[in-house]
Structure formats: structure tokens, C-alpha cells
Amino acid sequence: MPPTLATVAALPQLGLRSRTGPLPETPVVWVAVSELEDPTPFLEGGELVLTTGMRLTPANAAAYVSRLVGRGVAGLGFAVGVIHDTVPAELLAAAREQGLVLLEVPRPTPFIAIGKAVSRMLAAEWYEDVTRAFQAQRELTRAALTGPGALVARLARLLGGWALLLDPAGDVRHAEPAAARDRAAAIAPELPRLRRRTADGGTAASLALAVPDDHVVVQRIGLGGRPRGFLAVGTGAPLPHAAHTIVGAAVALLTLQSETPRTGRDLRASVAALLLGRPGDGPEVPRGPVRVLACAGGPAVPDALESDPAGARCLVLPLGGHAAVIVPDGLLGAVEPLLAGTGPVGVSDPAADDLPAALRQAEEALAAAVRARRDVLRYADLPGQGVLRLLEPGPANAFAAALLAPLRAEGLVGTVQAYVAANGQGEAAARALGVHRHTLRSRMRRAAEVLGRDPDDPAVRAELWIALAISSSGAGPIGHRGDSPPGSPEIA
């Protein structure tokens, strides 16, 4: 967790002194310097606010403290020897009365030294979390080689709580410790929420439960439409970010184990033949140019392939709600009708080695086939169009609305649109908005907080650009008014 006021104040090089009594274990999430009479519009809560009291008077001291307490700041650091020789009596009295921690900052201590110290402590905590999560993932991987029971036992010990592995019906397969088996009864009524399909055709991946004395998280195991099982973990306190990463690793390992096909022996032999340079000895390995087919039928695809000898020379990969099939080019005429009966199919161009590109082609063709209500659509038959015009309007608008909702609630859509249009260049975005770069930086920090992701990550900016383009297209075809105009970004 972040450093506390007590640990920050204990740093001897800073010389901080509490004027309001013993320091609580209040976490400090950041340091903010402000001489404003009301800095709270620029705070999020949890900050150590530093000031010289430039605008502080005996008349406004109590109101100043009240605003900081209402915003939930961690504490106030007051520099003496700059504007005021000592901490003003009115400020000290208000802080003691309203429960605000007040630290006296000596004249030789610059504010930036306090900011750097807290930043270093936050960075050390983040590095410790990453290291802990990485080590835990290695331990889970080793345990998974023994079996799911060993993995569940290791996970419970890593979290300092309990863990249950349930089968698709909700019955207990493994429990750690054994007494955790009794908790399955409280979890069972909630499992239908993880089996039920959502409005966009997907399924919920996890849920959190309010259980007396426990914070419980339940994760769905499996990639297809029907879950292969469920993983439930419980701890005495809410899971921190690093613990969620550890649970996610356990779910991924259990999913890999559960999705291994029963006919995996032949598939492994085929892969081994390729690795050994002897594809002729692997009858399942397609020879020559191949096509990749993206099939909406999902779980029905393997059954359809097994109904015809041509399917024996195809390789199938489940991909969530759909499936990808590698088909020898010469068998396409026989395989297409088989798979068309399971749902819409998208077909790539012939490929020799770049199968990832062929998969992308097939999935684009599948999306167009679903929209056009075609049984089979080949990538070569798609009209020339940008990526936005390939999006399904319903799910695309749902995606845009969900991603932009927290920004709309905070009035930050225009700010983020300028930032994305400027390709993450703060100066250009600030000029487009007509605001100071520090104001833009503060707004973007808030945007990152409400989004739960970093807009400086190119992948995140790409998602935001797509969402903004979809949103600006309204009910019309996607991609017309959302495309970024040339030149400097402009905000209407």
C-alpha cells in the first residue's frame, strides 16, 4: 500500500514535525503544492497538501481546513519561515478541532524534496507489487504442472485466504483449506450470473460477493460459451491490485488445462512433426497454401468437421465465442459448406506462412458476413473500407458508450478527444482547448483515474480514438465523422 503520513514524517532528511499529535496510519497517494484559498477542485483525496499560507488569514483558516477535510486529503504540510514565521494559531486550532493532520515544514526543506521522497516510496511499493506478482505467477505455474489441486492450494497460501475450484455444476473439485468447502453453498446461487450470456452475446468473466467476514471474488474458467468451471477466492480484506493479477494468472492456467482437447494427442503429434521438420509424418498437418476460416459457430465447429473426412486435415482453435480453422486450400470447397451450417463464416486469402495476418482477414470477413447476414464471405470480396466501417454498429456503440461513460460523468470527453487527436502531445492539446498545460495535465490525470488505464499507452489511445469516432458517428455509418482531421486538433 502507499506510504503513510507516519513513514513520510519519520524521514530524518525532511525534518517534518507533527503539530496535531500522534500521526495516524493514513496513506499518502501523492503530494500537491497549492497556494490557492480553495485547492480542492484540483485534488482527488489522499494527498499531502503543501502550502506557505500565502492567502491564509485568521478569518479564512477554519473554512480552509474544512474544505481540505471534506475533500479527504491525507494531511497539510505548512512551511514556516516563508510567509509566516510560525504556524498561525487559528490554522492550528482549526486543524486540531476538525481532525486534520498538520505537519510543520522547516524553512530549509524545499517542497520538492517532500514530493521526491513520496514519489520514491510509491515507486518502491509498485516495484515490490510487480516483483511479488511475478514470483507468485512462477509458483502457480510450477504448481499447475502437478495438477489443479496443487495450484488451488498454492493460490490460497499466496493470498493468505481460501480458494475453491468448482466444476461447471458448482460442485467442489478442490478446496484449500478443506474447511473452505462449506463456503460453496453461499456461492452456488450466484453462479448463474457467470453462465448467462450478456446483451452483446458474451458472458461475465467474474463477480464479487458480499459475504460476512470475507471478501469473495469468483472467476469463470473456460473460453467457450459454456464454462468449464469456476474459481472462488476469499480473503479478510479486499484484494489489492497485485493479488488480482495473481488470481488472473491462476484462472489462465486453469483455463489452459480445461481447454486441452481430448484429441490433443493427434494435435501434439502434428505440432511435433512441424518442429522436427517432418510434416509428411503428421497426417493432421495441412500441406501447401492454407486458408484461415473464422466461424461464428464456436463449439459446433469441431463437431461439424468431424462429420466429414476433409475435416481430419483441418486444425481448430477456439477463440471465445467463435473458432478459427486452418484449412488446406484444396479442401476449401468441401469444408466451407460444412462450417456454413454452424453459422456465418469469414474466409481469408490463401496464405503460406503469415497465419496471424490470415486470421485477421478471416475475422474481418466474419464481421462483415454477420452484418450482411451471409453464410460465407471471403476477404477478397470485401469492398475497400476503413477499419471503423467494419465494426458491428450495436456492439461498437455499446463499447463506445461504456468506455466513455466515466469521462462524460466527469466532463472530460473534450479534454481526452483533444489529447487523442494530438497523439498524446500535451502542448498541442492544451492549445486546442485554450487551457494551460498544467490544467490539461491535471485533467488527464483525472481521466486516467476514472478510466483505470493510462492514456499515454498507444493501445489505450487507439481504443479511445475508436470510441470517440463511433460516438461522433451517431446513428449513421461508423467512421465518417470520427476520423481525425489533418493538421492541429480542433475541438468543436
From TrEMBL:
Purine catabolism PurC-like domain ranges (all copies): 25-121
Domain PucR C-terminal helix-turn-helix: 412-470
Top-level taxon in the UniProt lineage: Bacteria
Pfam families: HTH_30, PucR
Protein name as it appears in the record: PucR family transcriptional regulator
Species classification: Bacteria, Bacillati, Actinomycetota, Actinomycetes, Streptosporangiales
